[in-house]
Automatic annotation (TrEMBL):
Its cofactor is FMN. PANTHER family: FLAVOREDOXIN (PTHR43567:SF1), FLAVOREDOXIN-RELATED-RELATED (PTHR43567). This is Flavoredoxin. Belongs to the flavoredoxin family. The keyword Metal-binding does not apply. The keyword Cell inner membrane does not apply. SUPFAM superfamilies: FMN-binding split barrel (SSF50475). InterPro entries: Flavin_Rdtase-like_dom (IPR002563), Flavoredoxin (IPR052174), Split_barrel_FMN-bd (IPR012349). Keywords: Flavoprotein. Pfam families: Flavin_Reduct (PF01613). GO terms for molecular function: FMN binding. Residues 9-155 form the Flavin reductase like domain.
């Protein structure tokens, strides 16, 4: 039997996304976001939700661009730090010794050391409440060669992404492979 738990967000997992942007002086900046994900296949688009008080908010609006960087689990401390301090007061790249690289297709930096970086052009904004949702059209994706499968697509077991539990405020590693999509369910097809 289920129990009503009220208005909550028990949606798991939340991705740990590091959002790259430039400030008005051209200084590379990043922020950690967990509210985000794929929202469209054609054209390929990603959403991220950002509070207006965040330093990155104005940067993304001004440049009409951002990158979505996926850290591997060995960079969980850096990912956490990026969400703890503001780029107004900190040079996050200098403090973590990570490398900002100018995007190839957008006016935003990506993180060289992270296995996946996705360059997005801002195409829509939607005010929701505490957050503003940005929709970015994917113009380019970059992946470290070490995380690519034989078909050239990133393998999640090699990327080793970090996931987040908002309620418990803990980070987790990706779990085990449960089986192939669109095959497991054939058990029920008669």
């Amino acid at each position: 039997m289920k129990k009503t738990i009220g208005i909550q967000m028990p949606l798991y997992p939340a991705p740990v996304l590091i959002i790259g942007n430039y400030d008005e002086k051209g200084k590379p900046n990043v922020m950690t976001a967990a509210w985000g994900g794929i929202c469209c296949s054609v054209p390929p688009c990603i959403t991220i939700s950002v509070q207006k008080i965040r330093y990155s908010y104005k940067n993304i609006l001004d440049r009409k661009a951002f990158t979505v960087n996926i850290p591997s689990d060995k960079y969980v401390k850096e990912a956490d730090f990026f969400g703890m301090v503001s780029g107004r007061d900190h040079d996050k790249f200098e403090e973590t010794k990570l490398t900002p690289i100018r995007g190839e297709k957008v006016d935003a930096p990506y993180i060289e050391e992270f296995p996946i970086s996705i360059e997005c052009r801002l195409v829509h904004t939607l005010e929701l409440g505490t957050h503003v949702m940005f929709v970015g059209e994917v113009l380019n994706a970059l992946a470290s060669e070490e995380c690519l499968a034989n078909d050239g697509y990133p393998d999640p077991t090699l990327v080793q992404p970090v996931i987040f539990s908002p309620k418990f405020r803990h980070y987790y590693a990706l779990g085990s492979d449960l089986g192939e999509a669109y095959k497991l369910g054939k058990f029920f097809i008669k």
